[in-house]
UniProtKB/TrEMBL annotation:
Main location: membrane
Keywords, ordered alphabetically: Cytochrome c-type biogenesis, Membrane, Transmembrane, Transmembrane helix
Subcellular location: Membrane
Residue ranges constituting the ResB-like domain according to the UniProt record: 1-494
UniProt-recorded name of the protein: Cytochrome c biogenesis protein ResB
InterPro entries xrefs: Cyt_c_bgen_Ccs1/CcsB/ResB, ResB-like_domain
Gene Ontology terms: cellular component: membrane
GO terms classed as biological process: cytochrome complex assembly
Membrane topology designation: Multi-pass membrane protein
């Protein structure tokens, strides 16, 4: 047990870096940022797997050694407990007066009948009567469930660790942003359907449970301060045979009330807004795009993002010219606009948001024309433009403006950019953990075992009954011992002694 406690301490100590240092499994971008900001210590931490603590070789080694140590510790204990359950109570000590608790008294009757009466009053105790010279002794014990509860607690802890490990091996978790109010939805066909996907060591992404989800609407309630009171999404989903039968089922998805389908759980994690921009090119052709923008202020949902729009085919004579006339938009979105004065104290031009609900949406945007870099093959963030293209003057800013919903701005070549709509989006998380029910079961049995081990107390009581000098009476001597917790044993022993010596007693003398 000492080894197990040391390993448990090391496990807790090893988890500290996972709470203090960014983890790749949670936010790979934060890890890259940390490495840039700490060029000396960052690579060393990476070699020690400090950015992947909970999947590192050293954390796994401590985890496995802890499990082995617990098994090695509990196996002999359960053998000893089985032996103690089968054993009879121990013989009475020769001198009961030396025990921590002691009482004496006299009773009418012979030793055998008095011993039988004492045994009858010790209901719930395991008892045995033995001859002792001219008299008899009664040995009684109770509290066997204390050790049983302790063993249940520790074996449940082992089961909990095994269930968590199984969930990490065979489970997966994916996050995806879905536009509400008629957005395209998503299907769990492969990991590529998710914006981020974390798979267990045995999951290759080819056996995901088939399911499709569409978000028909989103509702949110806010306090006057702007704090979210509640939010929920009305969704439709298909799963299993419904996909072939084209049957859609409705569900009200709320926080902490996930959709459960065949072992998968769909959680509502968060929400935000997706603006729609419509670009009318000089030849009259129109292109629109709706994409989510990232909430930068969770209290007001002031969001930032970017949109890239390609000219339609035929708008420009060749592909090179078409690439040079791509439209890019980057800026801020305020659900409820609030304008403040600029640095010069002139007109109100700085946009912020005063409330997270869509009451008076507006955007503050920079409009660019040129090569957005989408054809370079380099990955780009959907929330920001490629600054290297700006540095090379391949993407040039044409206009900076504020637009309320429905307003538009015209560029020098006649291109019109309009802010036409704002749609809520939701962040959904799909989780699959085949060991989840076992985690619940082992957690409940662990708490039950801990409760039993704390409530039940192990006690021993002995009674020696010997003939007294007066015919027809016997001397009764009681002794008690608390095997584990001694708290409250004094009052309990006094009540027990009073009950055992009161009926038919010729006299009762309390000891210590």
């Amino acid at each position: 047990m000492g080894t197990a406690l040391v390993l448990l301490f090391l496990l807790a100590l090893g988890a500290v870096p996972g709470a203090l240092i960014p983890q790749r499994s949670l936010n790979a971008g934060k890890v890259d940022e940390y490495l840039v900001q700490h060029p000396t210590i960052g690579p060393w931490l990476d070699r020690l797997q400090m950015f992947d603590v909970f999947s590192s070789f050293w954390f796994t080694a401590i985890y496995v050694l802890l499990v082995i140590s617990l098994i090695g510790c509990l196996t002999p204990r359960i053998i000893d407990h089985i032996r103690s359950m089968r054993a009879v109570p121990t013989k009475a000590p020769r001198n009961l007066g030396r025990l921590p608790k002691h009482a004496e008294g006299c009773a009418v009757g012979d030793p055998e009948s008095v011993a039988a009466g004492i045994t009858a009053k010790l209901r719930g105790w395991r008892t045995i009567t033995r001859p002792d010279g001219a008299g008899v002794t009664v040995s009684a014990e109770k509290g066997y469930l204390r050790e049983f509860g302790n063993l249940v607690f520790h074996f449940s802890l082992l089961g909990l660790l095994a269930a968590v490990a199984a969930g990490k091996l065979f489970g997966y978790e994916g996050n995806v942003i879905v536009i509400a109010d008629g957005g395209p939805g998503f299907c769990t066909a492969s990991p590529s359907a998710f914006d981020s996907f974390r798979a267990g060591n045995t999951v290759d992404g080819t056996s995901l449970y088939p399911m499709c989800v569409q978000v028909d609407g989103f509702d949110a309630d806010y306090l006057p301060s702007g704090q979210a009171l509640s939010f929920a999404a009305d969704i439709r989903y298909q799963a299993g045979a419904d996909l072939t039968d084209d049957i859609w089922r409705d569900y009200r998805l709320e926080v902490n009330h996930p959709l459960r389908v065949a072992g998968d759980r769909v959680y509502l994690q968060g929400h935000g807004y997706a603006p729609t921009f419509t670009v009318t090119f000089p030849d009259g052709q129109v292109r629109s795009q709706t994409i989510q923008w990232r909430p930068d202020d969770l209290n007001t949902l002031l969001s930032s993002g970017a949109i890239r729009i390609d000219p339609p085919a035929g708008a420009y004579p060749d592909a090179m010219e078409r690439r040079k006339n791509q439209i890019a938009i980057q800026g801020l979105l305020a659900p409820t606009q609030q304008l403040t004065s600029g640095e010069e104290g002139g007109a109100a031009t700085l946009l912020s948001s005063s409330y997270p609900e869509l009451r008076d949406p507006a955007v503050a945007i920079d409009i660019y024309r040129g090569d957005t870099g989408l054809d370079t093959g380099r990955p780009q963030s959907i929330f920001a433009l490629d600054h290297s293209m700006m540095a090379q003057d391949r993407l040039k800013r044409e206009k900076r403006t504020n637009l309320s919903l429905g307003e538009s701005v015209r560029l020098d070549d006649g291109t019109v950019v309009a802010f036409t709509d704002v749609t809520p989006f939701v962040n959904l998380q799909v989780s699959h953990d085949p060991a989840q029910i076992w985690v619940l079961i082992f957690s409940m049995t662990m708490m039950g075992g801990l409760l039993v081990s704390l409530v039940v107390r192990s006690r021993r009581v002995w009674a020696r009954i010997e003939p007294a000098g007066v015919a027809g009476t016997v001397n009764v001597e009681l002794g008690g011992l608390a095997r584990t917790d001694n708290s409250g044993w004094g009052d309990e022993f006094e009540r027990l002694a009073s009950r055992l010596l009161d009926s038919g007693s010729a006299g009762h003398k309390e000891g210590r």
